[in-house]
Every structure is written in structure tokens, then in C-alpha cells.
């Protein structure tokens, strides 16, 4: 059994799109032209976007920001993710998903990899999105404070 968290990404034109928005992939397996399995090391953070539609429009829009777990660690089950992950953020509905994607873009604009962002940032975004407030922006200073805290915690 592998200690990696595996994510199945799938693309069926105009029907299903499961994709990893960010994260450090350590292994990739091409299953067929529509499916790949991406693997993440324990402790790594990644963004997983799922979208499904029918003949009548979009059925599901969802984003999950997850932390890959080590073998034996407790985790939540998430479709297409084996064995599951620690959920840092889980939102559904296109407006919320789109807003989180914009936040990810803003973080990347700062030159910061979203996979390195403080986990508590992801855990608290939904509080502000649900009341239509703008979440506190992630800044370079906040990121430096997180990196310092992470070094001290080790």
C-alpha cells in the first residue's frame, strides 16, 4: 500500500471535469486519454475542483482544498480521492467556487504557491464568503509569518 494520496482527474467534454488546481504532484499515471491519477505526499496541500453538467446545465460545482494524509491518519472521504484527505476548505456552488479560484489567482500573483499557504487561511475563507464579505487577503507579510511559525513548530 502506498503512503501517497491519489486523486483521479477526469475530463469528458461538456460533461465532467475533475482537476487539480494547485499542489505538488509527486507521481502521475495516465489511465486513458480522459483519466489520470495524480499522487501527493503526506502533508502536502492541493486544490481539487469538480464540475459536472447535464443537458440542462451545471449540476455540480465544487472546490476542495485538502491536505494529503499519512497512512493510518484520520481523514474525510472525498470522491475521487484515495484514501481521502484532511478537508481545509469545501465549497459548492459556482459563485463561491469562482471566488475561491480568484483568491488562488491573487495568491499566485504575489509569487506565492497556493500549496505553501497557511492551512488556517484556507480553513477560514468560507466564513466570509457565506456572508458576502471579502475575505482577508493573503499578503506576503502574512505568508512570511506562517513560514516562520512553521519553522519554529518543527
UniProtKB/TrEMBL annotation:
Q: Name one GO molecular function term.
A: hydrolase activity, acting on glycosyl bonds
Q: Which InterPro entries match?
A: DUF2840
- Report the domain of life of the source organism: Bacteria
Task: Keywords in alphabetical order, please.
Answer: Glycosidase, Hydrolase
The identity of this protein, by name, is Glycosidase
